[in-house]
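In this section we walk through a basic example: taking a raw amino acid sequence and producing a predicted 3D structure, encoded as discrete structure tokens. The instruction is simple. Fold the sequence below.
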Amino acid sequence: MPQFYVTFDEATARFLTDASVRLERPKIQIVRETIHEYHQRLDRLSENERESMLRAFDQLMPAIQPRPRPEVRKELLEARRARKAVEMRG
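The resulting token sequence is shown next.
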């Protein structure tokens, strides 16, 4: 098993010690659990990313002009036909 040696700054070391005491768990267990939790969140959006995307969505929505249903249906039908043609060739 690979070994890593980590040095924490004073504030982080105090936080780790405080968590260890309050949770009644060894420091290494807290470090491991924290790394696992952090890894699970890697693919999730951060709060800033989420808010930025929502702002962009809110700005773009009013710019989308409604289109008549027959026009939309026609476009969807054409897209389906094109997709089937590609599937039949492939």
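Looking at the output, two observations stand out. Residues 10-44+56-89 form one domain. The mean pLDDT is 93. In the next section we compare this with other chains.
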